[in-house]
Amino acid sequence: xxxxLCWTPxxxxxxxxxxxxxxxxxxATFAESFKQKSISEELLRVGNGNISAQIFGxxxxxxxxxxxxxxxxxxxxxxxxxxxxxxxxxxQVVAVKQLDRNGLQGNREFLVEVFMLSLLxxxxxxxxxxxxxxxxxxxxxxxxxxxGSLEDHLLDLSPNKKxxxxxxxxxxxxxxxxGLEYLHDTANPPIIYRDxxxxxxxxxxxxxxxxxxxxxxxxxxxxxxxxxxxxxxxxYGYCAPEYASTGRLTTKSDVYSFxxxxxxxxxxxxxxxxxxxxxxxxxxxxxxxxFKDRRKFPQIADPMLQGRYPPRALYQALAVAAxxxxxxxxxxxxxxxxxxxxxxxxxxxxxxxxxSSDPRDTLPPSTATAAESDHGKHVKENQNFDLEPDxxxxxxxxxxxxxx
Length: 404
Prior knowledge:
- This protein is an alpha+beta fold.
- It folds into two domains: 21-143, Phosphorylase Kinase, domain 1 (2-Layer Sandwich); 150-399, Transferase(Phosphotransferase) domain 1 (Transferase(Phosphotransferase), domain 1), CATH 1.10.510.
- The chain is built from 14 helices and twelve strands.
- It has helices spanning 21-32, 39-47, 58-64, 107-119, 150-154, 166-186, 241-246, 251-267, 283-291, 297-300, 311-324, 335-347, 365-383, 396-399; strands spanning 54-55, 73-77, 80-87, 92-99, 128-132, 139-143, 191-192, 201-203, 209-211, 218-219, 228-229, 248-249.
- It has a six-stranded mixed β-sheet with strand order 1-5-6-4-3-2, with helices on both faces. Strands 7-10 form a two-stranded antiparallel sheet.
- It is globular.
- The model is unreliable at 1-17, 28-37, 362-388 and 395-404 (pLDDT under 50).
């Protein structure tokens, strides 16, 4: 899915904290003032010596990708193409993103990505190795993620491709939420990702997720400010309704986008799929009436799962998604609360024989209900989550397509 204007029809510990006045001044300076000189000069000026990314020459990266051979292509989007490469200098396998000189990502977005990923470090954020800014060439060099994107394993699977198991899906959801939590709660000032979607979640060989593509990331509100006002950018189907209509951006905008992706993980459906009947093309719109009847929850689950999931885990995952998709931004949970809920879900393993590590899935109905009630009380008191989806705040306006 291309990145475009939203309304166009097309536990918990980080590896390195970015805190303190120096980091805050660097990010604030970069957000407030941008004067293009040369890429390297600008990064040195604004980064105050904190930019750790290597500088590569174009010839070196051309050699690493064997002149950008077509069979080295890993994927492409609105910003350019990504190739697999091999660095002779270090013997490292990398991913090289060559930005389209006529594409959607300009010098500013390029600088944002280099700057953000040089200061932000977390196990659930992709590692930026370096960049190239020779002449009008703009390339980014990342760690290689062998399993590609979440989208590759979740949406429009070929008949011979194995679908993701429920346990893996919850693991990915938890890890992606932790990446957002780091951006919102640890980075100082907070960072709003602004383009959270399944194609931007990359997977390593163990299905550990990492957020990538930070060209649209924005420094969040600081001090007594409640939001930042900005041009509306993102990907159609994932944008929070209040952001699309007003341009007012908050961390809760990312929480809404996370809710859409969590629905994709649960359902195996795209946020927007024009190949489906009109009533099913918008995922949030399609799921809204199904949320209201617990008996219909199995209809929401990805058919490729073939019923291999703990029913209570499905209900609880849908509850998290419903909370994230509330029309009013103020009623959505903090991403830290989402992480807490998903940590619980990811810890409840489900075996292919139908057994579950959650004892309530094997208890007699009356006992299971009582246990669920006790757990629900604990969640409400400590995490502000209900176990059943509350869809009263998901109205038509929140789930419909955006228009100018």
